[in-house]
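Priority: medium. Attachment 1 of 2:
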Protein backbone atom coordinates (compact mmCIF):
# COMPACT_ATOMS: atom_id res chain seq x y z
CA UNK A 1 0.00 0.00 0.00
CA UNK A 2 1.28 3.44 -0.89
CA UNK A 3 2.13 5.58 2.12
CA UNK A 4 1.03 9.17 2.53
CA UNK A 5 4.63 10.43 2.16
CA UNK A 6 5.06 8.42 -1.06
CA UNK A 7 1.86 9.83 -2.44
CA UNK A 8 2.97 13.36 -1.59
CA UNK A 9 6.28 12.78 -3.39
CA UNK A 10 4.41 11.73 -6.49
CA UNK A 11 2.31 14.87 -6.72
CA UNK A 12 2.44 16.60 -10.05
CA UNK A 13 4.18 20.02 -10.31
CA UNK A 14 0.77 21.66 -10.52
CA UNK A 15 -0.44 19.90 -7.38
CA UNK A 16 2.78 20.80 -5.57
CA UNK A 17 2.50 24.46 -6.58
CA UNK A 18 -1.13 24.54 -5.43
CA UNK A 19 -0.19 22.89 -2.15
CA UNK A 20 2.60 25.43 -1.55
CA UNK A 21 0.28 28.31 -2.38
CA UNK A 22 -2.33 26.95 0.02
CA UNK A 23 0.28 26.47 2.74
CA UNK A 24 1.57 29.99 2.20
CA UNK A 25 -1.96 31.38 2.45
CA UNK A 26 -2.65 29.58 5.72
CA UNK A 27 0.76 30.52 7.18
CA UNK A 28 -0.02 34.24 6.95
CA UNK A 29 -1.13 35.41 10.37
CA UNK A 30 -2.50 38.74 11.58
CA UNK A 31 -0.63 41.00 13.99
CA UNK A 32 -3.27 40.31 16.65
CA UNK A 33 -2.69 36.58 16.28
CA UNK A 34 1.10 37.06 16.57
CA UNK A 35 0.79 39.19 19.70
CA UNK A 36 -1.55 36.68 21.29
CA UNK A 37 0.73 33.79 20.38
CA UNK A 38 3.83 35.48 21.80
CA UNK A 39 1.93 36.46 24.95
CA UNK A 40 0.83 32.87 25.50
CA UNK A 41 4.35 31.53 24.94
CA UNK A 42 5.66 33.93 27.57
CA UNK A 43 2.81 33.52 30.07
CA UNK A 44 1.55 37.12 29.86
CA UNK A 45 -1.76 36.58 28.04
CA UNK A 46 -4.11 36.92 31.04
CA UNK A 47 -5.67 40.18 29.87
CA UNK A 48 -6.00 38.83 26.33
CA UNK A 49 -7.38 35.39 27.27
CA UNK A 50 -9.91 36.46 29.87
CA UNK A 51 -11.05 32.93 30.68
CA UNK A 52 -8.01 32.27 32.92
CA UNK A 53 -8.51 31.08 36.51
CA UNK A 54 -5.15 32.00 38.09
CA UNK A 55 -4.40 34.93 40.36
CA UNK A 56 -1.76 37.52 39.45
CA UNK A 57 0.66 35.94 41.94
CA UNK A 58 0.09 32.48 40.49
CA UNK A 59 0.62 33.75 36.97
CA UNK A 60 3.83 35.50 37.98
CA UNK A 61 5.19 32.37 39.68
CA UNK A 62 4.23 30.24 36.69
CA UNK A 63 6.02 32.59 34.29
CA UNK A 64 9.18 32.61 36.42
CA UNK A 65 9.16 28.81 36.60
CA UNK A 66 8.82 28.53 32.83
CA UNK A 67 11.64 31.04 32.29
CA UNK A 68 13.90 29.03 34.57
CA UNK A 69 13.02 25.82 32.75
CA UNK A 70 13.84 27.37 29.37
CA UNK A 71 17.08 28.82 30.72
CA UNK A 72 18.03 25.39 32.01
CA UNK A 73 17.23 23.85 28.62
CA UNK A 74 19.33 26.51 26.88
CA UNK A 75 22.38 25.79 29.03
CA UNK A 76 22.00 22.03 28.69
CA UNK A 77 21.73 22.34 24.91
CA UNK A 78 24.83 24.57 24.65
CA UNK A 79 26.91 22.27 26.85
CA UNK A 80 25.77 19.22 24.86
CA UNK A 81 26.73 20.91 21.57
CA UNK A 82 30.10 21.79 23.05
CA UNK A 83 30.61 18.25 24.33
CA UNK A 84 29.75 16.74 20.93
CA UNK A 85 32.35 18.95 19.23
CA UNK A 86 35.16 18.26 21.69
CA UNK A 87 37.64 15.50 20.90
CA UNK A 88 40.77 14.52 22.82
CA UNK A 89 42.42 17.94 22.72
CA UNK A 90 44.45 18.99 25.72
CA UNK A 91 42.22 21.17 27.87
CA UNK A 92 42.84 23.73 30.57
CA UNK A 93 40.83 24.95 33.55
CA UNK A 94 38.71 28.00 32.68
CA UNK A 95 38.53 30.75 35.27
CA UNK A 96 35.49 30.22 37.58
CA UNK A 97 34.44 33.84 37.14
CA UNK A 98 34.54 33.37 33.36
CA UNK A 99 32.30 30.30 33.64
CA UNK A 100 29.89 32.25 35.85
CA UNK A 101 29.65 35.11 33.34
CA UNK A 102 29.31 32.64 30.48
CA UNK A 103 26.39 30.80 32.09
CA UNK A 104 24.67 34.05 33.10
CA UNK A 105 24.68 35.13 29.47
CA UNK A 106 24.25 31.76 27.73
CA UNK A 107 21.11 30.81 29.67
CA UNK A 108 19.24 33.48 27.71
CA UNK A 109 20.37 32.30 24.26
CA UNK A 110 17.27 30.71 22.67
CA UNK A 111 18.09 30.58 18.95
CA UNK A 112 19.51 27.17 17.92
CA UNK A 113 22.00 28.76 15.53
CA UNK A 114 23.24 31.18 18.21
CA UNK A 115 23.46 28.31 20.69
CA UNK A 116 25.90 26.62 18.31
CA UNK A 117 28.08 29.73 18.30
CA UNK A 118 28.00 29.93 22.08
CA UNK A 119 29.03 26.29 22.30
CA UNK A 120 32.08 27.23 20.22
CA UNK A 121 32.93 30.00 22.66
CA UNK A 122 32.81 27.49 25.52
CA UNK A 123 34.91 24.96 23.61
CA UNK A 124 37.54 27.55 22.71
CA UNK A 125 37.85 28.73 26.31
CA UNK A 126 38.13 25.16 27.62
CA UNK A 127 40.86 24.30 25.13
CA UNK A 128 42.69 27.63 25.55
CA UNK A 129 41.69 29.36 28.80
CA UNK A 130 41.90 33.14 28.55
CA UNK A 131 41.39 33.24 24.77
CA UNK A 132 37.85 34.67 24.94
CA UNK A 133 37.62 37.90 26.89
CA UNK A 134 34.61 39.03 28.90
CA UNK A 135 34.43 42.05 26.59
CA UNK A 136 34.07 39.72 23.60
CA UNK A 137 31.34 37.75 25.36
CA UNK A 138 29.39 40.92 26.11
CA UNK A 139 29.72 42.05 22.50
CA UNK A 140 28.57 38.63 21.34
CA UNK A 141 25.60 38.80 23.73
CA UNK A 142 24.44 41.98 22.03
CA UNK A 143 24.49 40.35 18.59
CA UNK A 144 21.24 39.12 17.10
CA UNK A 145 21.10 36.23 14.67
CA UNK A 146 21.04 38.78 11.85
CA UNK A 147 24.11 40.54 13.27
CA UNK A 148 25.92 37.22 13.39
CA UNK A 149 25.03 36.56 9.75
CA UNK A 150 26.34 39.98 8.72
CA UNK A 151 29.57 39.43 10.61
CA UNK A 152 29.98 36.00 9.07
CA UNK A 153 29.75 37.59 5.61
CA UNK A 154 32.53 39.97 6.60
CA UNK A 155 34.63 37.06 7.87
CA UNK A 156 34.22 35.28 4.51
CA UNK A 157 35.96 38.25 2.85
CA UNK A 158 38.63 38.79 5.49
CA UNK A 159 42.35 38.52 4.79
CA UNK A 160 45.55 39.58 6.55
CA UNK A 161 48.97 40.57 5.26
CA UNK A 162 52.47 41.42 6.37
CA UNK A 163 53.47 40.43 9.89
CA UNK A 164 50.10 41.51 11.33
CA UNK A 165 47.64 38.64 11.83
CA UNK A 166 44.66 40.91 12.45
CA UNK A 167 41.85 40.21 10.00
CA UNK A 168 41.14 42.95 7.49
CA UNK A 169 38.61 43.76 4.78
CA UNK A 170 40.52 44.79 1.68
CA UNK A 171 38.59 47.53 -0.14
CA UNK A 172 41.01 48.38 -2.93
CA UNK A 173 44.50 49.25 -4.12
CA UNK A 174 45.98 52.72 -4.57
CA UNK A 175 48.67 53.20 -7.20
CA UNK A 176 50.36 55.96 -9.16
CA UNK A 177 49.37 56.64 -12.77
CA UNK A 178 49.35 59.45 -15.29
CA UNK A 179 52.19 61.74 -16.28
CA UNK A 180 55.33 60.99 -14.25
CA UNK A 181 53.18 58.72 -12.05
CA UNK A 182 52.10 61.67 -9.91
CA UNK A 183 48.35 61.05 -10.10
CA UNK A 184 46.88 58.61 -7.57
CA UNK A 185 44.34 56.09 -8.88
CA UNK A 186 42.32 53.51 -6.97
CA UNK A 187 41.12 50.07 -7.99
CA UNK A 188 38.17 49.31 -5.71
CA UNK A 189 36.66 46.05 -4.54
CA UNK A 190 32.89 46.40 -4.35
CA UNK A 191 32.06 44.63 -1.08
CA UNK A 192 28.37 45.30 -1.66
CA UNK A 193 28.52 42.80 -4.52
CA UNK A 194 29.22 40.13 -1.89
CA UNK A 195 26.25 41.06 0.36
CA UNK A 196 28.32 43.44 2.47
CA UNK A 197 27.29 47.00 1.48
CA UNK A 198 28.56 49.98 3.42
CA UNK A 199 25.33 50.16 5.42
CA UNK A 200 26.09 46.69 6.80
CA UNK A 201 29.66 47.72 7.54
CA UNK A 202 28.27 50.61 9.57
CA UNK A 203 26.18 48.15 11.60
CA UNK A 204 29.26 46.02 12.32
CA UNK A 205 31.17 49.16 13.28
CA UNK A 206 28.35 50.08 15.63
CA UNK A 207 28.68 46.68 17.28
CA UNK A 208 32.39 47.32 17.78
CA UNK A 209 33.46 44.43 15.54
CA UNK A 210 35.13 46.50 12.79
CA UNK A 211 37.03 49.76 13.26
CA UNK A 212 35.36 52.73 11.62
CA UNK A 213 38.32 54.24 9.74
CA UNK A 214 39.44 53.02 6.32
CA UNK A 215 43.20 52.58 6.55
CA UNK A 216 46.00 52.65 3.98
CA UNK A 217 49.15 50.58 4.18
CA UNK A 218 52.54 52.08 3.53
CA UNK A 219 53.69 52.22 -0.09
CA UNK A 220 54.96 48.81 -1.08
CA UNK A 221 58.31 48.42 -2.84
CA UNK A 222 58.80 46.16 -5.84
CA UNK A 223 61.94 44.71 -4.28
CA UNK A 224 60.12 43.39 -1.21
CA UNK A 225 57.48 40.61 -1.41
CA UNK A 226 54.61 40.91 1.08
CA UNK A 227 53.05 37.87 2.81
CA UNK A 228 49.33 37.75 2.01
CA UNK A 229 46.82 35.33 3.54
CA UNK A 230 43.24 34.62 2.53
CA UNK A 231 41.16 32.05 4.43
CA UNK A 232 43.99 29.62 5.19
CA UNK A 233 45.89 30.10 1.90
CA UNK A 234 49.34 31.71 2.12
CA UNK A 235 50.88 33.74 -0.69
CA UNK A 236 53.56 36.28 -1.49
CA UNK A 237 52.60 39.38 -3.44
CA UNK A 238 55.36 41.49 -5.02
CA UNK A 239 54.46 44.89 -6.53
CA UNK A 240 55.09 45.18 -10.26
CA UNK A 241 55.90 48.86 -9.61
CA UNK A 242 56.84 50.89 -6.56
CA UNK A 243 54.23 52.90 -4.72
CA UNK A 244 51.26 50.52 -4.57
CA UNK A 245 49.36 50.59 -1.26
CA UNK A 246 46.45 48.57 0.18
CA UNK A 247 43.19 50.09 1.40
CA UNK A 248 41.30 48.22 4.12
CA UNK A 249 39.18 48.15 7.25
CA UNK A 250 40.61 46.42 10.30
CA UNK A 251 38.70 44.09 12.62
CA UNK A 252 38.62 45.32 16.22
CA UNK A 253 40.25 43.17 18.93
CA UNK A 254 36.77 41.92 19.93
CA UNK A 255 35.89 41.25 16.28
CA UNK A 256 39.15 39.34 15.91
CA UNK A 257 38.31 37.12 18.89
CA UNK A 258 34.84 36.32 17.58
CA UNK A 259 36.10 35.78 14.02
CA UNK A 260 38.53 33.13 15.25
CA UNK A 261 35.54 31.06 16.40
CA UNK A 262 34.10 30.94 12.89
CA UNK A 263 37.17 29.40 11.25
CA UNK A 264 38.30 29.81 7.64
CA UNK A 265 35.58 29.76 4.97
CA UNK A 266 36.05 31.45 1.65
CA UNK A 267 33.75 33.21 -0.78
CA UNK A 268 34.71 31.69 -4.12
CA UNK A 269 33.38 34.55 -6.25
CA UNK A 270 35.16 37.11 -4.10
CA UNK A 271 38.40 35.15 -4.30
CA UNK A 272 38.25 35.22 -8.10
CA UNK A 273 37.76 39.01 -8.15
CA UNK A 274 40.42 39.49 -5.46
CA UNK A 275 42.81 37.46 -7.58
CA UNK A 276 42.08 39.53 -10.67
CA UNK A 277 42.73 42.74 -8.74
CA UNK A 278 46.00 41.54 -7.21
CA UNK A 279 47.28 40.21 -10.51
CA UNK A 280 46.88 43.66 -12.09
CA UNK A 281 49.47 45.14 -9.74
CA UNK A 282 51.45 42.27 -8.22
CA UNK A 283 53.35 39.13 -9.05
CA UNK A 284 51.48 36.58 -6.94
CA UNK A 285 53.24 33.43 -5.78
CA UNK A 286 52.96 30.56 -3.35
CA UNK A 287 55.77 28.60 -1.72
CA UNK A 288 55.76 26.18 -4.62
CA UNK A 289 55.76 28.45 -7.66
CA UNK A 290 54.76 31.76 -9.18
CA UNK A 291 51.35 31.53 -10.76
CA UNK A 292 48.17 33.33 -11.75
CA UNK A 293 45.58 33.26 -10.29
CA UNK A 294 45.86 32.36 -6.58
CA UNK A 295 43.10 29.73 -6.57
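Attachment 2 of 2:
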Amino acid sequence: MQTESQAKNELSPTDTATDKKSHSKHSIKSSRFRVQSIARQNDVSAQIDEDHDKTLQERSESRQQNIQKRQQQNLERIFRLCYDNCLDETAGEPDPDWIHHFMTIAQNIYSPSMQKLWSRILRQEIITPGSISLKAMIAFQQMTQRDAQLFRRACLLACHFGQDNTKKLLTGLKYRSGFLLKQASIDKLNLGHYQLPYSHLLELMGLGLILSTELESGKLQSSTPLPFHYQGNDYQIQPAKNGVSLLYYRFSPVGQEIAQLLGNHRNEEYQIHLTELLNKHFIVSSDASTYHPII
